[in-house]
Design brief:
- This protein is an alpha+beta fold.
- It has two domains: 5-224, 3-Layer(bab) Sandwich (Hsp33 domain), CATH 3.55.30.10; 230-273, HSP33 redox switch-like (CBS domain Like), CATH 3.90.1280.
- The chain has helices at residues 24-33, 38-51, 133-140, 180-197, 202-210, 230-237, 242-248; strands spanning 5-11, 16-22, 63-72, 74-82, 86-92, 103-112, 119-128, 146-150, 156-162, 215-221, 223-224, 254-258, 265-269.
- The longest helix is centred in the C-terminal third of the chain and has 18 residues, at 180-197.
- It is elongated and about 75 Å long.
């Protein structure tokens, strides 16, 4: 199975960018890592396919965390991603399986920079549909004229952004200025056909969208990658007090620690902390 990729195109004549995420392998890999119930899988895939488009706003060395704190229904969903396209995700409680039609709570967006403090913004959710959360974040937090739509199969998604006039080098100076919604309606059949074709090859995807007047900019792999390691686990556990560590090994000479993001288990002895 081909690695998932995020493709970027620009429509110079109309002043829009289009980002196409072919996410078949990404959602398959996450399904293998996390035991996602059938009732929660649709929400899980839709959220991943939509939030991953936000890496298009990241610069070299930057990373992003999207944390959905839903109170009704209650769950915590974390997606952490970076400029390179590596991402990891976590859903709590693990046994959560109710597919939510409406969400109430907050979405926290934390952008992390290489040499400065992180920036966090908060977007309120009030009975919002799960598929619209990302569009609310793009409008209220990023303040862009963007919209993300997903395929019915929940394996691909597209983000369309209307560029500010100062950023547009029009091919035709007197070309018609259309709104974001008008542009999406105009491209609806093109996007629907792209989803139904299930294209996965780079050349096929580039050729398809270039056939409708879009210019190909670049693409990057998007894949699950957890940076956890035995060394990092030991470092975190060493932050516990001496008494807490003594209690951990009170009943057994060995303990296990599991990474909640990738479900990797690590085994330690007391000697690891001396």
């Amino acid at each position: 199975m081909k690695e998932s990729r995020l493709y970027s195109f620009i429509d110079n004549a109309a002043g829009f960018t289009l980002h196409f995420l072919e996410g078949t392998k990404l959602v398959a890999d996450i399904k293998d890592i996390h035991e996602i119930g059938e009732n929660a899988k649709e929400y899980y895939n839709r959220t991943i396919l939509t939030t991953q488009h936000m890496i298009t706003f990241l610069k070299t060395g930057e990373s992003l965390g999207v944390y959905i704190d839903s109170e009704e229904p209650y769950f915590r969903f974390k997606i952490e991603t970076n400029f390179t396209g590596s991402m990891r995700t976590l859903l709590l409680p693990e046994e959560f399986e109710s597919f939510p039609e409406k969400l109430t709570g907050v979405a926290r967006i934390t952008k992390i920079f290489p040499n400065s403090k992180p920036y966090t913004s908060v977007v309120q959710m009030n009975e919002d549909a799960p598929g619209e959360i990302i569009n609310k974040i793009l409008e209220e937090s990023y303040q862009t004229k963007s919209k993300v739509v997903t395929s019915d199969s929940l394996k691909q998604s597209v983000m369309i952004t209307k560029l500010p006039k100062v950023d547009i080098k029009r091919v035709i100076e007197d070309s018609e200025d259309i709104s974001l919604n008008e542009y999406i309606i105009k491209f609806n059949k093109i996007l629907t056909d792209a989803f139904e074709k299930g294209l996965t090859e780079i050349d096929q995807i580039v050729e398809y969208f270039e056939g409708f007047g879009l210019n190909y900019l670049h693409s990057k792999e998007v894949k699950f990658n957890c940076p956890c390691s035995e060394e990092r686990m030991i470092t975190n556990l060493r932050n516990l007090s001496h008494n807490d560590l003594e209690q951990l090994f009170a009943e057994d000479e060995k303990i296990e620690a599991r990474c909640d993001y990738c479900n990797t288990n690590y085994e330690f002895t007391k000697e690891n902390f001396q």
